[in-house]
Specification:
This protein is of the alpha+beta class. The protein folds into five domains: 87 residues, Zinc finger, CHC2-typedomain (DNA Primase, Chain A, Alpha-Beta Complex), CATH 3.90.580.10; 139 residues, DNA primase, catalytic core, N-terminal domain (DNA primase DNAg catalytic core, N-terminal domain); 114 residues, Dna Topoisomerase Vi A Subunit, Chain: A, domain 2; 57 residues, Pheromone ER-1; 114 residues. 52% of the residues lie in helices and 11% in strands. It is built from 26 helices and 16 strands. The strands form four sheets. The chain has a five-stranded antiparallel sheet. Strands 13-12-14-15-16 form a five-stranded mixed sheet. Strands 6-9-10-11 form a four-stranded antiparallel sheet, covered by helices on one side. A hairpin with a 5-residue loop joins strand 4 and strand 5. The two termini are 44 Å apart. About 3% of the residues have low confidence.
Length: 585
């Protein structure tokens, strides 16, 4: 079922200024009737990225990434299709109309939108108080003492809640919001024993907690004085705000994380602000050490690699180990950043600059390396008994590292050297089992599919464009395996052709990730009404990406005959694409 009507989605696409949208990520230059730039999806020195502003398409002749405005936002900001549509609609003022909606669901959605509006106006109010109120002078002084400048504070919309008991309550009621809505949004609370309603946040620095689209859902609030309640106070759990799903700064971090291919997780708000100010903009805060599955999933949506830079105390180390074990099942590479004892990221960049923190990122450890070093540091290596205990603890850690890798070999050498044992002892077992256990013989589910990069997302988009029309089916039949850089999408193409009338039947039971990928393509197809011109253009772009991959292989193999043939094919395809996009000078 479609969430929004086709007409709504087309109006969003029509409203987008592609030059403005793409130009915010890379410097566009006009060349005749086209716009060119360095590709935002891969490193290059010569511009190969092109934008057709009139038709709303982008294409990179280098890496093959291509798509429309919605696809660009998905790739750059790590959003899914629905989120990208909603983000663009917000940005360009387009009203989205939904398909038939259950009355109860519609009522709940409208209630949610009203609460979000209330939270948004309160966020703006707290911002004004911070910068304009005499009462907030000590808050401004405190933030300045942490080395935080006004620009970064405004970027993250940091504010201040006045100490009066009812400022937000009275102002919101004047604007037509009820006490029940203030309570539901977590901005007010009820007195004991059914007493009166009053502002939840008073006399605190306010850190807005937004979702990936930048919509504020709640607040983290820090007090500046003793005896005024807990040091940190969060919005209470409600239908809008769930602390376990929240990452502070995710809205600001997503574009940088998508570009860098990594996201940095720290503990606190000021750590994120300090790193952003220092130019490390892919940082988010998990707001403590109790990482949740929802937070881990949000990190994975932002980037394939997460660097955890938590405090060096025992709580921070335990949190990094828990996160590492949780990440194994989510196709997320997790690396551990070892901070100096007693120093957090904000202090490190304030005292030593961004380079000091970046050097720690470069020396980040895998979870296995971190865990091995931690066991060795705490073990009694001065006695045979202590070394035996350490060896027993270290064997399963090292065994969990894939064999025949440099990491495993290095860990074996490290353990053997520190415990003064032969390297063969590290992986040996005193009583090896000769028969596989029942658990080991049980068939295992397939591993999760690898994440899609920008090129694979273009390939996925073409499959969605093809599904549902006879012309699209013809293009699907023309595709070859070499057209896909991401092999699972070739399998999706085979599934679509085999189950053309109903691709959601016969989904594989033993491969959940692949089934989800099929559903994703079909859902996107339901939201698309594709012209023959768009189909042909995207097919030519995929064909060009295929030729470019073949050229790179031929260059590596020094096969000059193949290089000459593919070079002619590349020029032919470029000419056809230029003609179709109207890019001829």
């Amino acid at each position: 079922m479609r969430l929004y009507t086709k007409d709504s989605i087309e109006r969003v696409k029509d409203a987008v200024d592609m030059v403005e949208l793409v130009g915010a990520r890379t410097d566009l230059r006009r060349v005749g009737s086209r716009w060119t730039a360095l590709c935002p999806f891969h490193d290059e020195r010569t511009p190969s990225f092109s934008v057709d502003a009139q038709r709303g398409f982008y294409h990179c002749f280098g890496c093959g990434a291509s798509g429309d405005a919605i696809g660009f936002v998905e790739a750059m900001e790590g959003l899914d299709f629905r989120e990208a549509v909603e983000s663009l609609a917000d940005r360009y003022g387009v009203e989205l109309k939904r398909e038939q909606e259950d009355p109860q669901a519609e009522e709940e959605r409208k209630r949610r939108e009203r609460l979000l509006k209330l939270i948004e106006r309160t966020t703006s109010y707290y911002e004004r108080v911070l910068w304009e109120s005499a009462e907030a002078a000590h808050a401004r002084d405190y933030l300045a003492s942490r080395g935080l400048e006004e620009e970064v504070l405004r970027t993250y919309r940091v504010g201040y809640s006045p100490s009066a008991w009812d400022k937000v309550l009275l102002a919101a009621q004047r604007d037509g919001f009820s006490r029940e809505e203030l309570l539901a949004a977590g901005l007010a609370q009820q007195g004991r024993n059914g007493g009166g309603v009053y502002d939840r946040f008073r006399g605190r620095i306010m850190f807005p907690l937004a979702d990936a689209r930048g919509r504020v859902l709640g607040f983290g609030a820090r007090t500046l004085g003793e005896g005024r309640g807990p040091k940190y106070l969060n919005t209470s759990e409600n239908s809008i705000y769930h602390k376990g799903r929240q990452l502070f700064g995710i809205h600001q971090a997503r574009p940088a994380a998508a570009s860098a291919g990594r996201i940095v997780a720290v503990e606190g708000y000021t750590d994120v602000l300090a790193l952003h100010q220092a130019g490390i903009r892919e940082a988010v805060a998990i707001m403590g050490t109790a990482l949740t599955n929802e937070q881990l999933q949000e990190l994975r949506r932002a980037a394939p690699t997460a660097y955890f830079a938590l405090d060096a105390d025992s709580a921070g180390q335990e949190a990094m180990l828990r996160a590492g074990h949780m990440a194994r099942d989510r196709d997320l590479e997790l690396l551990v950043v070892q901070l100096p004892d007693g120093r957090d990221p904000a202090e490190l960049v304030a005292e030593n600059g961004a380079g000091a923190f970046l050097s720690l990122l470069d020396r980040a450890l895998t979870v296995a390396e971190f865990e091995v070093r931690r066991v060795l540091a705490s073990a009694d290596l001065g006695t045979p008994r202590g070394r035996d205990h350490a060896l027993a603890a270290l064997r399963p850690i090292v065994a969990g590292v894939p064999p025949r890798t440099a990491t495993r070999d290095e860990l074996v050498r490290l353990v053997a050297d520190r415990l003064n044992v032969d390297p063969s002892y590290v992986m040996s077992q005193d009583s090896p089992s000769t028969a596989p256990s029942a658990e080991a013989s049980r068939p295992r589910p397939r591993a999760p599919l690898a994440p899609l990069d920008a090129v694979a997302k273009s390939e996925r988009g073409f499959l969605a464009m093809c599904h549902g029309s006879e012309l699209g089916k013809e293009y699907l039949e023309r595709l070859e395996r070499d057209h896909f850089s991401y092999e699972p999408l070739w399998r999706v193409r085979e599934h679509l052709l085999s189950h053309w009338d109903d691709p959601l039947i016969a989904l594989p039971d033993d491969d959940e990730s692949f089934a989800v990928l099929i559903k994703d393509v079909v859902l996107r197809a339901e939201n698309d009404d594709v012209s023959a011109e768009a189909l042909r253009l995207t097919f030519l772009q995929l064909d060009l990406a295929r030729v470019n991959r073949g050229l790179r292989r031929a260059e590596q193999d020094q096969d000059f005959d193949v290089q000459r043939t593919l070079a002619r094919d590349r020029q032919r395809l470029r000419d056809q694409i230029d003609e179709l996009m109207g890019l001829t000078l």
